[in-house]
Design a protein that fits this description.
The protein has 70 residues and is mainly α. It has three helices and no strands. The protein is elongated.
Length: 70
């Protein structure tokens, strides 16, 4: 995932033959990533971050107001 993020790759990376060759050479036993595994990993990181932020905010004694404009 770090390669995908730092390389600013699209989720179409699974069609990239050179990336597959690199991953096979570097990580012999690692399954090749797909769009679904990348999405699932990112979602798990988002969920963990949300829980961490909620825990930090509830541990404080002061009030926090969040405004999000979309």
């Amino acid at each position: 995932m770090r390669i995908i993020v730092s390389g600013n790759l699209l989720f179409l990376f699974e069609n990239n033959v050179e990336l597959h060759a690199l991953l096979k050479d570097a990580y012999l036993n690692c399954p090749l990533p797909t769009r679904k595994t990348a999405r699932d990993y990112l979602q798990s990181q988002i969920d963990a971050t949300i829980l961490m932020v909620k825990a930090k905010l509830t541990a404080n004694d002061f009030k926090v107001s969040l405004v999000l404009d979309t």
